Amino acid sequence: MTGFLLLAGAAVILVAGAELFTEHAGDAGRRLGVSLLVIGLVLAGAEPEELFTAIFAAARERPAIAAGDAIGANITMLTLVLGLGALPRPLPFGRRVRTYAAVASTGGLVAALALIGGVARIEGAGLVAVYVLFVALTWRLERRPPAIGEVAEMESTEHVSELSSGSTGAVLLMGLGIAVMGLGGWLAVDGAERVVASLDLEDAAVGLTFVGLATTAELFALVWAAARRGVEELAVAGVLGSALYNATATLGTAALVHPVPAAGLLSASWFAASIPLALVVSSRRGHLSRQLGWVLLASYLIFVVVTLR
Fold first, then answer.
1. Residue 301 to residue 174: CA distance in whole angstroms
2. What is the pTM of this model?
């Protein structure tokens, strides 16, 4: 029970830290003279919750929890988050979003191939390089920052933000948000270790399910907030971009800290890589329907049962 309480507390802390970071990132970027994309990618990562948790898990020699979190978070956001988001009304899935889906699937495929023999440090560096290449190419082709994770949320809220430009306090508050996420990541790993011990589960299984669910908590709020503001397509693109980020940058960074074993992760990584392509095939009319939402929810439940059995 203590492990689950720690995971729940970690989810709250991670969300609070991410919100603090996101709220002040725009003003901090202006103060530092850099773009929102640089703030998101360099200072905290496009999905800092997963990144911080993976780093702490790998540093504590639990790389299967780290990799499980990266892959499990992708499965959670692509099935549970998008499934719930599609229930009130269909989610838009236009041409730009389809492009993100195809790229996210490619990133997932690269991660799955890397996991076949376990991800060594050199392969981890390669995964990070793949992500950097994606960002550079996307920016070059679109002449605008790609909508990824926290960057997507910052873009969707920037036009309504009234933060004072050049505030030193914003830089400090953004730094505090990063520190809070670090604390949340540490608690998430501690909770995961306790769940492993109490339920006699493998590290990979706990990372894929409980930790992955905890670290994607903010994406639920992102999709629902985007729906209220009428920018659902940006939120969906953010989810897909986050999936690419976790499959490459998060998994790669974890491997740089500690090589990642393949045990218990390979089949889940193939599943995560296939979901974006399935979404493209199922959204030929340009949206994710309510019926597909129910299918995604059922897929997540089946995944959890199979993983924990």
1. 36
2. 0.80
Which numeric CATH code is attached to 2-308? 1.20.1420.30
Q: What is the pLDDT of residue 26?
A: 56
Pairwise CA distance, residues 85 & 81, whole Å: 6
Q: For residue 118, what are its two tokens?
A: 């376990």
Distance CA 82, CA 300 (A): 11
- Here the tokens at position 164 are 């004072």
Domains of the chain, by residue range, sit at 2-308
What's the farthest any 2 CA atoms get from each other in the chain?
A: 53
Q: List C-alpha distances in Å: 150 to 241, 265, 291.
A: 10, 26, 28
Please report, for residues 68, 206, 254, 255, the alpha-carbon distance to residue 196 in angstroms, rounded to integers and kept in the order given: 13, 7, 19, 21
Q: Which residue has tokens 């496009």?
A: 46
- The Cα 287–Cα 272 span in angstroms is 20
pLDDT digits (tens, 9 = 90+) for 60-114: 888 998 899 999 999 999 999 899 888 888 888 888 788 888 988 999 999 999 9
Interatomic CA distance for residues 207 and 283, integer angstroms: 30
- Coil, helix or strand for 85? helix
The model's pLDDT over 202-223, given as tens digits with 9 standing for 90+, comes to 888 988 998 888 888 777 766 7
Handedness of CA 72, 266, 124, 296 (dihedral sign): negative
d(CA 207, CA 213): 9
* pLDDT at residue 45, as a whole number: 44
CB 11 within 8 A of CB 215: yes
The DSSP string of 95-142 is HHHHHHHHHHHHHHHHHHHHHTT-B-HHHHHHHHHHHHHHHHHHHHHH
